[in-house]
Design goal:
- The protein is of the alpha/beta class and 280 residues long.
- The protein has nine helices and 16 strands.
- The strands form four sheets. The chain has a six-stranded mixed sheet with strand order 11-10-9-12-13-16, with helices on both faces. A five-stranded antiparallel sheet has the order 5-6-2-1-7.
- Strand 3 (34-38) and strand 4 form a beta hairpin.
- The chain is globular.
Length: 280
């Protein structure tokens, strides 16, 4: 069975959106969960967080940054094309019930993962402050969607090109120093950003959830590739997460593991090999 691409949109020079027809996945998907896809029989299995879903239409939305071999191959596909495998929903949904006031933090592509969290929280009646950060105004994504999903949206850029310079930690600190009392902070983005958020919220005693996205292969915990250390114990992001208490993550170990496959990814994209159909 192939999974048709219903829609493709370019969000910025590096990031694109795809809505893929997968009714069984859309029927059960919840914020915080992910899928694993394979483009063709020669492709690797790659996880993507579910950015949105339409239960009636059967569409599941993923947002992709074209940085590695498979994501660059995926970027070559258009609406009407198909991918071979699309498995999910995988992982544990983010526990959002009972939260009344939440800060949802998104860094870069992490905004695509933060969006369904904010959207679900808003639907549950929570007061949502969304803080998202990007390198520059040219890389801002999902601005309209995040506006609709939050009561207050703060968009910051590293270079200030949108008129609001700073990092997400700067903006979160401003909110906390102004007296905001959040039940929880949900932070999603690059590991250094999530670690910085956790160091800040720990000082203020605010519970913080982070979304860990290490290398995943099978999505069942069998391969052990997505191991993270939480409160001194090994956990598997694909079955125990991907959400964890950010104050209990061993960030040094997580960042070291993230670098393990950089050389392999670089080699796979060398000499123009980033294209569909390798090995055919």
């Amino acid at each position: 069975m192939a999974y048709e691409i219903l829609r493709k949109e370019t969000l910025n020079p590096q990031i694109f959106l795809m809505e893929i027809l997968a009714p069984a996945v859309a029927k059960k998907a919840e914020p915080g969960q992910f899928i694993i896809l394979r483009i063709d029989e020669f492709g690797e299995r790659v996880p993507f967080t579910i950015a949105d879903y339409d239960r009636e239409k059967g569409g599941v939305t993923i947002i992709v940054q074209a940085v590695g071999k498979t994501t660059k191959d995926l970027a070559q596909l258009e609406a009407g094309d198909s991918v071979l495998d699309f498995v999910g929903p995988l992982g544990v949904p983010t526990p959002l019930e009972g939260l009344k006031k939440v800060a949802v933090i998104g860094g870069g592509l992490g905004t695509a993962i933060a969006y369904p969290q904010a959207k679900k929280l808003k639907s549950l009646g929570a007061e949502v402050t969304a803080i998202v950060g990007f390198r520059s105004v040219d890389f801002i994504i999902l601005n309209d969607e995040m506006t609709a999903a939050s009561d207050k949206l703060i968009v910051a850029t590293d270079d200030g090109s949108n008129g609001n310079k700073g990092f997400v930690t700067d903006k979160l600190k401003e909110e906390l120093d102004a007296g905001e009392k959040f039940d929880e902070v949900i932070a999603i983005g690059p590991l250094p950003m999530m670690r910085a958020v956790c160091k800040l919220t720990e000082q203020y005693g605010v519970p913080t959830t982070v979304s860990m996205n290490p290398v995943m292969i099978d999505g069942t915990g069998m391969c052990g590739g997505c191991r993270v250390i939480v409160d001194g114990q090994p956990k598997f992001a694909c079955v125990d997460g991907p959400d964890f208490d950010g104050h209990k993550i061993d960030w040094d170990a997580a960042m070291k593991r993230q670098q393990m496959y950089k050389s392999h990814e670089k080699q796979s994209c060398a000499d123009g090999k980033c294209r569909i159909g390798r090995g055919k």
